[in-house]
User: Which sequence fits this backbone?
């Protein structure tokens, strides 16, 4: 058998189901790698060995019963899946990567964690992030920076950078992330992974907290499209009381099933330039999008150049909502000074906006979604670079002396991603390009809201034509 971490998550689960591998064996393999290698990439804030070992033992018992015909198990049963340290796991502290938070054990699971438990996955730990998920890096005051394994001098991106670093370094087979403005897709680009942000409402939020703006959703970071699809199958559901929901995909009822399907001939809009004034997209990132367009063309899809809307509405509305949501974070007054400068800056900005301004910005979000849908109505998919630059050196974005400049630099680094959080559309970053320096550079595909299954099929088609999972960083 190959080294266990070289296998896809789906293949690992198949071996467990067949009795050729046990969940405890797989867990111990990954725990050993975390102990040996995590100091190089800063993937984890908390490693939950005791919880993971108990879950692995129970998963194995369920797998044994399933082989005797006593019940069924899912596509990721027995596979380790860490979660971002912004969701609650009962009995485990939640830090939000902030020195201002005094974490105690969470009283209950968030919905996504409950789904991971029921699917028989194993909670190996909680991954690194930027403080309160606010920046394009994972450089906080409670843990080492998250670094891309392709060049540990460079950042893994943010805010789900720890999750991306864990998967890219082979410390976990796949990982949960959350995405409010590109926080799954940006780290996927920096770490050479698949990063999938599903349609709004497909993955339930809460119950501890809900994002009233609709920006945030949980998503998947994985080495293959099939692995990402399997995690989406675990996380998605039509939850009673959810504000928005979509029916599950057609065909065999799973996203995994769609990863094996060939999509119809699609109309693709190629966008190479950002709509943020003054932002220049790096030549390598433009080349990544152009090469992906050529690949799509060879596969029979129709690709045409296009541009994003440039009316400035996104640039006006997004900072209002972002800052108000940051100001609404519960932080004890006596710990405000322990917040990082960017967080304090955004909270101060948010407190300057009243309820009317917040409501107007949310109304503008809905108008942006309508205009964007009309603007791209002739297309099935929009193709862009994921980010405007290759992975940045650690410390490049962080600017404690001038948090306003840090905020602006973060927007300039990721000018394509937040649109789809505003519109609620699904979007995926794929590792189809590497720079001359050997750095991964992602391309992003977005589809109309609810067309997640189509996006999975297209992403898998691209992967089959130009596989990437055999490329591995030196740490591997």
Assistant:
């Amino acid at each position: 058998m190959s080294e266990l971490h070289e296998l896809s998550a789906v293949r690992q689960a198949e071996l467990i189901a067949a009795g050729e591998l046990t969940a405890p064996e797989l867990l111990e393999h990954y725990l050993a790698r975390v102990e040996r290698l995590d100091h190089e990439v800063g993937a984890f804030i908390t490693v939950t060995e005791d919880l993971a070992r108990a879950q692995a033992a129970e998963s194995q018992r369920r797998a044994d019963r399933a082989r005797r015909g006593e019940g069924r198990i899912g596509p990721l049963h027995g596979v380790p899946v860490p979660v971002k340290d912004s969701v609650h796991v009962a009995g485990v502290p939640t830090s939000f990567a902030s020195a201002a938070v005094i974490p105690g054990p969470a009283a209950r699971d968030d919905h996504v964690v409950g789904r991971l438990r029921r699917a028989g996955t194993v909670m190996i730990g909680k991954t690194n992030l930027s403080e309160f998920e606010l920046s394009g890096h994972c450089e906080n005051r409670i843990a080492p920076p998250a670094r891309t394994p392709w060049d540990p001098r460079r950042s893994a991106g943010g805010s789900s950078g720890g999750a991306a670093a864990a998967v890219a370094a082979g410390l976990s087979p796949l990982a949960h992330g959350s995405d409010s403005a590109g926080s799954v897709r940006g780290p996927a680009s920096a770490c050479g992974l698949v990063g999938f942000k599903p349609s709004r409402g497909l993955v339930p939020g809460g119950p501890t907290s809900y994002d009233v703006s609709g920006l945030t959703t949980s998503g998947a970071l994985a080495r293959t499209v099939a692995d990402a699809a399997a995690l989406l199958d675990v996380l998605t559901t039509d939850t009673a009381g959810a504000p928005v929901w979509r029916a599950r995909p057609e065909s065999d009822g799973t996203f995994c099933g769609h990863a094996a399907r060939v999509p119809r001939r699609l109309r693709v809009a190629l966008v190479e330039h950002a709509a943020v004034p003054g932002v220049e997209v790096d030549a390598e990132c433009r080349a990544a999008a152009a090469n992906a367009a050529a690949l799509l063309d060879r596969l029979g899809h129709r690709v045409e150049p296009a541009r994003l809307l440039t009316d400035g509405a996104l640039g006006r509305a997004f900072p209002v909502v972002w800052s108000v949501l940051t100001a609404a974070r519960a932080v004890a007054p006596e710990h405000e000074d322990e917040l990082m400068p960017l967080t304090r800056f955004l909270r101060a900005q948010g407190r300057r906006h009243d309820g009317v301004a917040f409501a107007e910005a949310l109304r503008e979000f809905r108008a942006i979604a309508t205009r964007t849908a009309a603007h791209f109505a002739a297309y099935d998919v929009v193709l862009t670079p994921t980010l405007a630059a290759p992975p940045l050196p650690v410390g490049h974005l962080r600017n404690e002396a001038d948090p306003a400049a840090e905020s602006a630099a973060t927007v300039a680094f990721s000018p394509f991603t937040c649109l789809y959080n505003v519109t609620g559309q699904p979007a995926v970053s794929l590792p189809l390009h590497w720079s001359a320096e050997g750095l991964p550079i992602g391309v992003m595909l977005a589809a109309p809201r609810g067309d997640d299954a189509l996006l999975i099929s297209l992403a898998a088609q691209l992967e089959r034509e130009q596989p990437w999972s055999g490329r591995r960083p030196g740490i591997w």
Summary: The two ends are 17 Å apart (CA to CA). Residues 355-375 form the longest helix (21 residues).
